[in-house]
Description:
By secondary structure, this protein is α+β, with helices and mostly antiparallel strands. It has ten helices and twelve strands. Residues about 395-400 have low confidence and may be disordered.
Amino acid sequence: MESYxxxxxxxDWLREANRxxxxxxxGNYLKDQSSYTYFESYIKGLGKEKGFDGRIVVxxxxxxxxxxxxxxxxxxxIMNKQVFDALNKEESAQVFIRxxxxxxxxxxxxxxxxxxxxxxxxxxxxxxINDIYDSLGEMRNQVYLLSLFTSFLIGxxxxxxxxxxxxxxxxxxxxxxxxxNGQLDQxxxxxxxxxxxxxxxxxxxxxxxxxxxxxxxxxxVSNVSHELKTPLSSIKVLTESLLFQENVPVEMYxxxxxxxxxxxxxxxxIISDLLTLVRLDQTEVPMNIxxxxxxxxxxxILKRLIPLAKKKDIKLIYQxxxxxxxxxxxxxxxxxxxxxxxxxxxxxxxxxxxRVILQSDLQDAWVSxxxxxxxxxxxxxxKIFERFYRTDKTRNRETGGTGLGLSITYRTVIxxxxxxxxxxxxxxxxxxxVQIPIRQI
Length: 441
């Protein structure tokens, strides 16, 4: 603002000096000596005009003062840089300090009326500009007061705003600390629809997920304990029966040892499936991806399961209209498809039918396993891929399953960037459909 007002003042005084210079040129005062007395009084009159708060000095081409509105320095010489530049037709305005006061000096040339290229002298206008600095001082004080008030107001608003924002964040941090300490049943009371509310919703969702994970972990540990304890309990009962009975016939020994062997096999199957799941749950599971003929792989699985189907007089039907080649880990996917077909055979009544259908397009391949078995209730279909989940708690005891087959299948399909869907109706059978990308990217 100071620069602006100073530049504006320079412009105004240069304009005033040019106005005087033009009047002197028009009156031809520097060449017509007969009018000198009038010229001198004219300059003094300009200096006394109302509203004009400056001093006018007219200098000839030799640097002599020939007229002075203050009548103080007449006859003296002035030849500073500004006057010298003006005699070379370069007008200028400068600010300098005189007696501890700011003074502005505007100097312009006086040209000959007839020959515009000839400079006859200069007009020097000087004026005090303390009023500018006085005004700037008052303005500066007002700005300081306004800044102080604004800073106080902003500080006050910042304090209340930060308190308003930090209060829910502190509350949220308290809940986070509780969850860190193992108290997973925490829920934030959500108010409003701002970013803090969104953060609270995300926290509640995270807490629910953690509760589900913890519940699944506890249920998994409980199921594992139960599944391992059941065959061990049977083995213990059978063993104690043989140990604490006298004169046990050989036939009973043979029968009990066959039962013990069956329970050991069951225990071994559970442990094998658990180890398989542990390997599949690793963050980076090694995948041996190769281009594989899906038709040949499926037919090999069916050939191996034909004896199981014949025991129950179940028809195994294979359908495919073309050769399908996919990029898969053949060992892992063979286990997954085998689990689906074996389950279909186990849970289909005698004389039923199991159909395996292969289809594909340019991007994906589908393996569908359809059976005419007992089916799955609608409310249980979303849970069947959970570990140890049983739709019928007694059914797996009879079929010899571990309750981990579908979990292994699900993890294997996901590792292949695929998906698995189930459609089922109680008493009418089930359809499991596995989708696998033909090319693994």
